[in-house]
Known about the structure:
- By secondary structure, the chain is of the alpha/beta class.
- The chain is 32% helix and 14% strand.
- It has helices at 12-41, 105-110, 113-119, 143-148, 159-166, 215-230, 263-278, 291-295, 305-311, 323-332, 338-341, and strands spanning 45-48, 51-54, 99-102, 124-130, 171-177, 235-239, 284-288, 314-318, 342-346, 355-358.
- Helix 6 packs parallel to helix 7 and helix 9 (305-311) crosses helix 10 (323-332).
Amino acid sequence: MKNGYGYNSYRGRMTLRRGLTILVAVLAVVLVLLVAAYAILQRYVIYSDSGTHIELPFFQKEEPEPTGDDIHIVVESPSPAPTAAGQEQPEREETGPLHAVQLPEQALAEGTAENYAVQHGANAVVVDLKRPDGTLTCALDLELARRIGAEPGQGEGLEEAVSALNEGTLYTVARICCFRDDLLYTADRSYNILTNSGYLWRDETDVCWASPASQTVRDYLTDIARAAAELGFDEVLLDYAGYPTQGQLGWIKTGESYPTGQLDGWIGQFYEQVARALEPYGVKLSVRTTAQALEGTDALSGQTAENLAAWADRVWLERPDAPEDCAAALEAAGAERGGEMLVFLTEQPGSEAESWAVQVQTG
């Protein structure tokens, strides 16, 4: 019923309240979308001397595999590798073939490495020092590692566990994931392999690769290997220690960081540099590769029987159908006993007569 003045009931307050509720809901949705977008785009933020920008992978155009006529390479000859200086450490005595098992960080941190080795019938353990994503498991006091955020945070490193392990009776191997690295580009894009369009090249797992042709990258990895020796490891295993062999290789920009036709030269120099750095410590150098690289049927990685025979003490690879062919290839390249160099990566412990490694992580 209307009142005598002809006015309806006042509804202004209710309308204002409803408007504020809608506004708050919209702002909440926007906030959620912004947080989600930041989480997704964070890995594509590029920091360089020219400023900060975002490189989205779906803006990269697929380009055809370059032909020989399209390749124009100018590469300076590598300078001699520096000779490491340091105090020699006694080498832990080996008895027979290497029987190794990859230690998960949990076992290392809990101090159960020996139990883990006994469980798998191993006389040696493999510890990740540089992970496949580029981060380090121990604080190594390296300036470049700090710049790119590779060093573990306070209280997160495994320094004490590694020290205790290397003071024990087990033979210890430090695994270093070399050129597959998702952090080095944050310091300088010139350290990395790029696409023909100038973007960061990423492999089939969406991880960047540093260039073996970069002296800074080689020095950084050599410093990590030297730090492993100083931590007391008996052996250093270089994994992802060549140019990439999987993914859209036709997108890679050839030239200084990817000198087609000269890949094996840079890889050989890298092995030499690391071997010379480890020599004063009496630490062995091992490299992971493939049977195809040893047999000369795969030149994409730059790994060859020649550079492995010259500088590696051991060669780790998945067991091929004809291991004797791999041994023969190493001996033809100059190794004295190619068969004794081979360490087969297996899912289960192998025989007592041969060297093997169980559960070596690949990424």
